[in-house]
Amino acid sequence: MQIDTDLTGLFGITLAIVALLVRLPRVRNLPLRQKAALLAGAIIVVSIPVGGLSLAEFVRGITGDLSVFTLVLLAVSLARSLGGYALVGEMSRRAVLQAILLVAVLFYPLVLGIGMFDPYRLGYGNLWFMMALLGAAIWASLRSSALLALGLALAVAAWNAGWYESTNLWDYLIDPWLAIYAFASQVKYWLARLKVRKHA
Amino acid sequence: MPDVKRAISLGIVLVAFGFGLHKAWQQPNPSFGFKLPVVDPPVAQPVVAEKPPVRKRGRHRFRREDEPTVVVGRFDSHFASSHLHVQTHASSLIELKDGRIRAFWFSGSREGASDVTINSAVFDPARNEWSAEQVVASRVSTQRGLHRYIAKVGNPVAGRAEDGSLRLFYVTVSMGGWAGSSITMMTSRDEGETWSEPRRLITSSFINISTLVKGAPFLYADGSMGLPVYHEFFSKFAELLHFDAAGRVIDKQRLSKAGQGALQPVMLVESPQRALVLTRYSGPDNPHLARSIATEDGGQHWSVGKTSLPNPDAALTGVALPDGRLLAVLNHQEHGRDSLSLMTSADGGRHWKELRRLEEMRTVRDKKLDEHQCLSLVQGLLQNSDAHLAQAPATTLGEYLDSAKARVRAEGGCGFEFSYPYLIQARNGDFHLTYTWNRVFIKHVTFDQAWLDRHLKKGADAN
After folding, report:
1. φ and ψ at B65, to 5 degrees?
2. 8 A C-beta contact, residue B382 and residue B404
3. Domain match, B435 and B297 both
4. CB hemisphere CA count around B151 (13 angstroms)
5. Domain-located, residue B308
6. Does any domain span residue B40?
7. Could B143 and A174 be called an inter-chain contact, meaning their C-beta atoms sit closer than 8 Å?
8. I need a surface site. Which of B17, B93, B320, B325 has the fewest CB within 10 A?
9. Are residues B135 and B272 in the same domain?
10. Does residue A1 have a pLDDT over 60?
11. Hey, of B8, B15, B205, which one would you mutate to test binding to chain A, going by the most A CBs within 10 A of its CB?
């Protein structure tokens, strides 16, 4: 079955918009029913084409499709905002973001042309790359980093199914927006720790 | 409980990676080695024969009566584009199954404007004329087909896939300048009369930006298609994309030996194992030369080539001839784009010799021509470029002149630009070249094997 990659791409963008919307202070404090109704309305609004282009399509043009890891983190965030309960622990989430930051720091300079080795090429079904990812996923499972293990597994499953237009596994693992979020999150964490030390 | 969670997590990982590894294992490795384009000239090509030119002896001109008639071959030029008062740029060519030549270029109020469209026209060698141009893709049609915002379109190139269909690649930008480009692809099964919905190629991990195309696609030995592309964001380098039969990207190879600043690679396939890539150079090194890299193993490994082609960071083009010689067309100068030369190399691209100066306007660069002098010059160039214009009514010529004036006199002087050449050899051996003529027209030059042989011989005799 051929997956419509435009639908999956737009699904990711819509999820991001909704997940960000629900984090707004005014929306966050609404009762669950009103929150759900607002989100349903938002989904319709971002999906309706105005002048031949919907808001989701406009954003997709700027951001590109979001990686599976981003979708997983957005889904976790949405569940927490809507249901008020955390699907994963803070430690597990932090471990994922730190892993993403580490990979991004090594990966993006190389793909953008610092040096002439291009790690992006490994994403076209390189077996050694897949084996290395499998090793990382097993290690994450055994270390109880379920979110990292699940993210890797879902990314590989989505690549296998042709979820997006991309035929490259890297596009399912990471995107620059996730890397920026991971960086900002890490800086926030460091600042918070500094503050605690100062008060201690 | 943690053990159950661990087991579930491990189970999901093993299942997902099991399928993933199976897919990776099943994927055929990208093949290397090249398929040579078929050139099958007719046994007796129609050639133009004429008396040799008169010679000078002192003040007298003479021609010996017994002097043999020489075969001069055919050399002709036209304007491929016909829209007036627009800017045109970045043309490319492909031969159709019936021997006609289809050209593509972009055209609009200015480069990068939202009204720019990808246009196409067909040259019929039997009638020696171009059809009217038609719009193949626009910003809006691309946006609609790709389901994402598109700000501008540019640089179309076409290739023929192994199954006979045409693939048109062009760049699209959603945000920023050309460095933010991605490649979009359309397919045609009726020689370019109609096209499929556009499809976005994902070729970069950074928001899929900064993959641009200019060089002609080529075929690998197994029939899969290769496309020379380049990257411009943060740093500049040349790359090759490799597609499977369905047009999916299966590999990307960075042409690292060409170094930083190597842009707009063009592939000159010499044999199933040998090829030369020429690129423009957009870096600080002087003297300003084109860059080259070569492969001897069908594209698996590349080594730095040595070439001595002066080039002012401007697009170039070339083809490999069946006899091993190379042809290239470029601005053979270190600064400016006001001349264009046809070059040849007999030693794999190490040394090049000019066969013919196709355009030459460096001579007027520093002359302070007034508007009347400049437009007289442009009128002569227009009439020399297209025989139809030489015989056209004054009003038609006036319209063309007016179109050209907008660019040539843009800075108040008399500035010329001949750029973005694109050369192909048709199956019958004829050569077709298009290039940007002062950003207002796409000029088409065609010559045959006899014309080329005569100029090659002339060059050899000069040595």
Report:
1. -65, -30
2. yes
3. yes
4. 15
5. yes
6. no
7. no
8. B325
9. yes
10. no
11. B205
Decide if B237 touches A, using CB distance below 8 A.
yes
Total of domains in chain B: 2
Yes or no, beta carbons of A121 and B17 under 8 Å apart? no
Residues 135-194 on A with a CB inside 8 Å of B are: 137-138, 140-142, 144, 146, 149-150, 152-154, 156-157, 159-160, 164-171, 174-176
Q: What end-to-end distance do the CA atoms of chain A give, in Å?
A: 59
Q: Cα separations (Å) of A47 from B143, B318, B440?
A: 15, 47, 40
Q: Quick one: pLDDT at residue B3? A: 84
Count how many Cα atoms sit within 13 Å of the Cα of residue A110 in the half-sphere of its side chain.
Answer: 11
Structure tokens at B309: 């082609």
Confidence of residue B285 (pLDDT cuts 50, 70, 90): confident
Q: Choose between B461 and B165: higher pLDDT.
A: B165
* Contact call for A113 and B140, based on CB within 8 A: no
| Residue recorded with tokens 């002359």 | B367
- Together in a domain, B367 and B335: no
Predicted pLDDT of residue B8: 93
Going by C-alpha positions, the residue among B340, B317, B213 that lies closest to residue B268 is B317
Tell me, yes or no, if A89 comes closer than 8 A to chain B by beta carbon: no
- B447 and B398, same domain (yes or no): no
Report yes or no on B274 lying in a domain.
Answer: yes
Residue B439 confidence (pLDDT) above 60: yes
Average pLDDT, chain B: 92
Answer yes or no: is the ipTM higher than 0.90: yes
What range defines the domain where residue B230 resides? 79-354+417-462
Whether pLDDT at B405 is above 90: yes
pLDDT tens-digit profile of A181-190? 999 999 999 9
Residue B23 reports pLDDT greater than 90? yes
Mean pLDDT score, B152-165? 97
